[in-house]
Amino acid sequence: MDILALIFKKIGAYDRIIIHRHVRPDLDAFGSQVGLAEWIRFKFPDKEVHCVGENSDSLSYLATMDVIEDQDYTDALVIICDTANSPRIDDQRYSLGKETIKIDHHPIVDQYGDINWVDTGASSTSEMIYRLIAHHTDSDSEMTTDVARLLYAGIVGDTGRFLYSSTTAQTFEIASKLVKYPFDRAAIHQNMYELTPSLAKLKGYLLNQFTVNDAGVCSIKLTREILNKYQVTVEQTNALVHVYADIKGVKCWAMFVEEDHQIRVRIRSKEVTINGVAAQFNGGGHPFASGATVSNWDEADQLVHALTEVCQQ
Amino acid sequence: MDILALIFKKIGAYDRIIIHRHVRPDLDAFGSQVGLAEWIRFKFPDKEVHCVGENSDSLSYLATMDVIEDQDYTDALVIICDTANSPRIDDQRYSLGKETIKIDHHPIVDQYGDINWVDTGASSTSEMIYRLIAHHTDSDSEMTTDVARLLYAGIVGDTGRFLYSSTTAQTFEIASKLVKYPFDRAAIHQNMYELTPSLAKLKGYLLNQFTVNDAGVCSIKLTREILNKYQVTVEQTNALVHVYADIKGVKCWAMFVEEDHQIRVRIRSKEVTINGVAAQFNGGGHPFASGATVSNWDEADQLVHALTEVCQQ
Asked: What is the ipTM of this complex?
């Protein structure tokens, strides 16, 4: 039996299904989790389906989570969407279920499910949920407008609205099926890109005050004074780490954000591998997206110097 | 005979085909014009095919134009892409041809062609060119990678990368066919969004220095001093007129740009009709995108006041 048929069979076999996803949810986590839940509710109105995890202020327009008791896990099927490893599953009670299924598109870290369906070629877990649905329905119209809305949001979120190279011919084909349903696409896009006036002004500061050296290293120092002026938290600045991606000649960049006793550094790159530099400064991460920590502004300058050497190699 | 078959028959009947598009070309103008030309060259290697109009610095990565003589128009078929009315056709020699075909997706202003194919429901003229090609080929693979690249660029340009409501299920379906060809999508996206460091810094200034009033009217005044500081021309500021679109609470905005003897105003709106206000200040345009002219900063404040009244209605 293929994996899609097996998952469908399991869904059919349980009366109660509880769906989880990763902590600090993004659009694809919510979209795949709640999209799958809504579809099961539509297809099997008699089943009890719950979505579990913390609510998210910025995603509340998409859906809200259910509150359930520990005993609800007894005899339940648990499906975990969009989560590569078990410590990142939001609400660790997932392990109380009778059987667990992992559905994910991230590189495999931990095969924590009794059944594991991982497709790293999929743009998003929402795309995989669409394929699961399409595999078991004869016509294009076998879902609700709300399911289409949730899966579209997930795909748009994880592909940067069809920007990243993970966007395939199949991704576009699925988008073409989803947008036939009359959900409000503009509302999803608006929620993705909307900035408060203070965040917009901080974004303006970031774009206005950066320096870029001859090697293509761009950097910005956000002092506590600046954060106070714009009334934003260290966490909120995370939403703006991509602001330098489209500037001509910039190969990589470091955003220094002053905390109480240290300076947090977010390092991003378009061309050069920067996790080696991050490792030199109490950090690490992916080749093009890493984090580090320095203790003062002199050390910040040393980090910029190290990035410059990488760019000049 | 349907219009697509008729156009295809005309293309087959002429030995020389000259393709035009509108002045101040954008991605869809270039994409549809050169995409069609490349496809005709691929399909009919013996025909002589020319693309006419001014070259564009910012689009030179896509294609460059051909230089032809007046007598080349004798006995030629002329196809004009993406142009609603004849005064906007780049290179008015289009009228020297033996027969003309208009292919366009804008609302009809002027049916200047002997044959006119206008589909205002299409996201872009590039999308229409894809349909013309698909109508006459049995398989998905009947084009070259370069044709796919040009049509994708046109679609992405006119839909704001699948953002605007003109993006339909068919648009996504066509995108799914085009991206099967191995052209460099990232290069197209990069060229769309890349900013020079000085334009990036001006964008930062715009996002940092705007004011927004209680009615949701946002405004910014770009003096000649500011333009000089950032070394950008009045024309270049046009690329940044959308910077306020994603700010929460902003209903409409006015960007004032000081010229030698007057102040140019670009007005944009998300919710309210603003061309009435533009008309009061020596201007006009579309309901959500207009232009005006004021003679001093006092008059600029009056225009903001007029926009405020519109927002409060």
From this structure: 0.90
